[in-house]
């Protein structure tokens, strides 16, 4: 059964709630935008039950209990990377490329062909920034996939990969994006955003595209009519102010273009990287963050919990904290999170398993396409 639209601020009034938090609850109930100061206050003072009730209220108003997933698979062309992000457990420098992998176009087409006749709707292509895999190489790959499987939505390349590819090809962002779009690229995933604020970015990933550059690449894609996702890597050295600054910058771009499909907080996992000494965030902190993202990012309809990174049990819990999307079936085609210590060592969920996870928390599983077009709602089997 869905949560009824309660008069939450009345409930909170009776519970002796801090005055500022009560004011925020009233604003949320009236659909008013929260300020950055209020965002920080929620991180400092909002306790789990309060945040969950408000985030649920907003999510249910938008989605009426629906939780989306898609049928997708990933292609990771390489883990060889010219960059050295300190949180990354996955990449290998070109000098050590023997320890990594580099797929040929043929090998990537073999992955695509494995799904012939299967009802997958999206391929997600993301990898390291290989110095020899250039724009031309990826345009050919996209055209080949498009020719082989015209019904598949092609979502690929983080702003970090794109920035490098376009600079190497000596093209402007607009020119480079246009080429990829013509070759078949339809959406961008949200990776590479990390934390935009330079005080944090200079510590965790100093050598790749900065926050302003990341936003400019997504804006260029939106201007071409493409959609994209946005992420935030949290739970390491950042302060609450940095999280709110990050979300605020995304909110501003969304006001301008409306091109973001969803927001995906990514929990820092600490195995096998140069930040392993930093403890991972607790589940309570994770749930609070999802709820605050739902309240603060008022122009993002969709909030995604990426279960291969969070683990399926925590991902399921986030469905009561404002989340309305669980990504997809994945089919054991990504290594980023298993290498960083996620409990999901071979991430794969059938549609039945995803539906069971969603039904178990009283919500309505709906299969979607990449652009959140509804494909099918799955009723609870008696
Ligand atoms: O940018 C890398 C993150 C991202 C670690 O758009 C880590 O639908 C936690 O963005 N701990 C790439 N996170 C993956 C990504 C993504 C994944 C799924 C769906 C979508 C989408 C996008 O992975 C990187 C970085 O933020 N990452 N290492 C780590 N140790
Ligand atoms: Fe390279 Fe991406 Fe890893 Fe950074 S996070 S080192 S850009 S693969």
Task: Please specify the SSE layout and strand pairing.
Elements (H helix, E strand, L loop, with lengths): L7 H6 L5 H11 L6 H10 L2 H16 L2 E5 L1 E4 L29 H10 L7 E4 L9 H14 L4 E4 L2 H10 L4 H11 L3 E2 L9 H7 L6 H13 L3 E8 L5 H18 L2 E8 L15 H14 L5 E2 L3 H4 L1 H7 L6 E4 L7 H4 L11 H9 L4 E5 L5 E4 L5
Parallel strand pairs: 1-9, 1-10, 2-3, 3-4, 5-6, 6-7, 7-8
Antiparallel strand pairs: 10-11
Helix pairs in contact: 3-11, 3-12, 4-12, 5-6, 6-8, 7-8, 7-10, 8-10, 10-11
Describe the structure.
The protein is α/β, with parallel strands linked by helices and 382 residues long. The chain has 2 domains: 8-63, no CATH class; 68-373, Aldolase class I (TIM Barrel, Alpha-Beta Barrel). 43% of the residues lie in helices and 13% in strands. It is built from 16 helices and 11 strands. The chain has helices at residues 8-13, 19-29, 36-45, 48-63, 105-114, 135-148, 159-168, 173-183, 198-204, 211-223, 240-257, 283-296, 307-310, 312-318, 336-339, 351-359; strands at residues 66-70, 72-75, 122-125, 153-156, 187-188, 227-234, 260-267, 302-303, 325-328, 364-368, 374-377. Strands 9-1-10-11 form a 4-stranded mixed β-sheet. It has a 4-stranded parallel β-sheet with strand order 5-6-7-8. β6, α11 and β7 (260-267) form a beta-alpha-beta unit. α3 packs across α11 (240-257) and α7 crosses α10. The two termini are 16 Å apart. The mean pLDDT is 93. Ligand V47 binds at residues 87-89, 126, 158, 189-192, 194, 229, 231, 233, 264, 266, 268-269, 273, 306, 309, 327, 336, 340.
